[in-house]
Amino acid sequence: MKKIHSTHTILSIKQVCAKFVQIAIEAPQLAKTGRPGQFLNVRVSDGSDPLLRRPFGIYRAQDNIVEMLVEIRGRGTAMLARKKPARPWTSLDPWEDPLRCRRRR
């Protein structure tokens, strides 16, 4: 899959426990092509601070909705966790094959 710069709409951000949030975005094309184990590189703010995007793994992609489970570890992920639904966010969509677990023999 090629790198794709796109804008998605945040549908919900739900606190799962003290350090994790579940984020759902409306992303019809990504929901068709994205698979669990692939990563989005997300800009967490509208400005340039923090400068670097944050990688988040897809855990569910169906019915035009992509969901991620995000651990709040620092300032960037804390900023993302405080965003409100209906806000846009930009990302570089998946650009490699999903991670796969190998069975030990």
Count every beta strand, where a strand is a DSSP E run of 2 or more residues.
Answer: 6
CATH topology: Elongation Factor Tu (Ef-tu), domain 3
Give the termini distance in whole angstroms. 31 Å
H/E element string? EEHEEEHE
Tell me the number of structural domains. Answer: 1
Largest sheet features: 6 strands, antiparallel, barrel
Q: How would you sum up the global shape?
A: globular
**Helices and strands: which structural class?**
mainly beta
Regarding CATH, which class? Mainly Beta
Residue runs with pLDDT of under 50 for 5 or more positions:
none
What is the share of helical residues? Answer: 10-25%
- Average pLDDT metric: 85
Just name the CATH architecture. Answer: Beta Barrel
Query: What gyration radius follows from the Cα positions, in whole Å?
Result: 14 Å
Instruction: Trace the largest sheet across and list its strands.
Output: 1-2-5-4-3-6
CATH-level-4 superfamily name? Translation factors
* Binned strand content: 35-45%
Total number of helical segments? 2
